[in-house]
Design a protein that fits this description.
By secondary structure, the protein is an alpha+beta fold. It has one domain. 22% of the residues lie in helices and 30% in strands. The chain has 4 helices and 13 strands. Strands 1, 2, 3, 4, 5, 6, 7, 8, 9, 10, 11, 12 and 13 form a 13-stranded antiparallel beta sheet that branches. A hairpin with a 3-residue loop joins strand 5 and strand 6. Helix 1 packs parallel to helix 4 and helix 2 packs antiparallel against helix 4. The longest helix has 24 residues. It is globular. The chain starts with 46 loop residues before the first strand and ends with a helix. 39% of the residues are buried.
Length: 334
């Protein structure tokens, strides 16, 4: 991998990647390290590798390799932070948006609930990290421009039910190891994903400093225990998957190749504020503060387009939910 033109900042010490023989490639074993809270050790961060090209991929028809889509999310949406010796203490994962014709826009966030690993700035392998993550989905305030969502927002508020109108009440999507649904730890390793071949438009050799890959299996949503809310959350997920081509459909595998810039120093205050900055930007106009990504495309470059009957399917699903739950919801809101 050719390095970018530029200068790696001074201060690199290294050594953590070599502190345990089990950490080494070709099969790094990081299990001796605890999975740390992602926000607990920001004061220890000194250096970072930022993901300039986060290239995501998934099958729009589960089980059909020809349906695989490729999409670059917004630049610098993710990064890995570590010490001068190379111990990883924080990993920022993606925030993205998805828009349904019937529901408007929703925020999608992959929340890191635990991480561990190492980074190296001199060896051939640049990083090995494990993550435990959870998907969270909630409505952007811009969705209130949709009369149906605004109506429901009011009903849910009056009934004190946890409608996913904010992150605290987000729909929680279970994510698991793609090879073993009983495991929650996801390995992030060097190189492009071996699961598939990427098209040239989704590759950045010669420009990126390094590339690593990560993948996650999509599981069901977490139930709240309230039938009205659970059925609504399931409806919202079905509509998101209709619009996005099964991006978060149970049984699918979401993969990303992260093409990184060369190392840089960490601004700890900026690191703390990063997630909130992204959330506020997406909430405001469904945009990203570092610029847009690309449209999803198939391997040959043909843009992915949701099925022509998506609006009809969405309306049918919404009407079915209203028929079953609206009377009880109105009664509860009084």
């Amino acid at each position: 991998m050719a390095q970018q033109s530029g200068t790696i900042p001074p201060g690199w010490v290294g050594g953590f990647a070599q502190s345990d023989p089990k950490f080494a490639y070709p099969n790094p074993d990081l299990s001796s390290l605890p999975l740390l809270d992602n926000l607990a050790n920001i004061d220890l961060l000194q250096r970072q590798q930022a993901v300039k090209w986060p290239e995501f991929s998934w099958e729009t028809v589960i089980g059909d390799p020809k349906s695989r889509c490729f999409q670059m999310f917004s630049p610098f949406i993710s990064r890995i932070g570590y010490t001068d010796t190379g111990r990883v203490y924080s990993i920022i994962c993606p925030q993205q948006g998805s828009c349904s014709p019937s529901f408007g826009c929703l925020n999608i966030e992959v929340t890191v609930t635990g991480q561990r690993g190492w980074a190296d700035e001199t060896g051939q392998e640049k990083v090995a990290a494990d993550l435990r993550v959870e998907g969270k989905i909630w409505f952007s305030p811009s969705a209130l421009q949709n009369p149906f969502v605004k109506f429901l927002w009011g009903l849910f508020a009056d009934s004190n039910l946890p409608f996913p109108a904010r992150k605290a009440n987000a729909i929680r999507v279970t994510l698991h190891n793609s090879e073993d649904t009983s495991k929650s730890v996801l390995p992030g390793r060097m190189g492009e994903s071996p699961r598939f071949k990427s098209p040239d438009f989704a590759r950045h050799p010669g420009k990126a400093w390094s590339v690593a890959n990560l993948e996650v299996g999509i599981g069901p949503i977490v139930k709240t225990g309230n039938a009205i809310v659970d059925d609504f959350n399931q409806l919202a997920m079905e509509l998101v998957n209709l619009a996005s081509g099964n991006l978060l459909s149970p049984g699918n595998v979401l993969t990303w190749n992260v093409w990184c810039e060369e190392p840089a120093l960490v601004d700890q205050n900026e690191w703390r504020e990063h997630a909130e900055k992204w959330r506020e930007s997406i909430d405001a106009d469904h945009g990203a503060p570092t610029g847009p990504g690309t449209q999803p495309c198939y391997f040959d470059g043909t843009p992915f387009k949701p099925i022509d009957a998506i609006v009809e399917k969405e309306i049918d699903a919404i009407n079915a939910w209203l028929k079953e739950h609206l009377p009880a919801l109105i009664k509860k809101a009084k």
